[in-house]
Write a structure and sequence with these properties.
Protein name: Transmembrane protein
Shape: rod-shaped
Number of domains: 1
Strand content: 5-15%
Low-confidence stretches: none
Mean pLDDT: 88
Number of strands: 3
Organism: Streptomyces ferrugineus
Structural class: mainly alpha
Largest sheet: 3 strands, antiparallel
Helix content: 55-70%
Keywords: Membrane, Transmembrane, Transmembrane helix
Amino acid sequence: MTIRGVLVFACLTLGLWGLYQALEGVQNQGLVDEVTCMGHNMGPDQEEHGQPMVPGDRCSPGHGSGIRTYAQQRDFQRQQHRRVVAGLWSVGAGVAGLALLGRLKSHQPRSR
């Protein structure tokens, strides 16, 4: 495998990893402005409440993750937002690397 092949593989891997990170962050409510619960949102009166969450509510998102307070759910969503941003930067870096490699290939002198 040539150095160019290794660089293409690295750029593809970076881009695909970034895409995975970004999509997972979006799926976990990383782009939502309000604090919302994907599962059951329980108020201080132990009754189920609607969305969005307010301070004092507790969230039971399912997936075996237990119960989160309003602050924990807010922090989780902020973490997912950072994941989306980092993933998109990785996708951009991978695409830029592939574009640069493609441009460098077209400018190489041809050998006979």
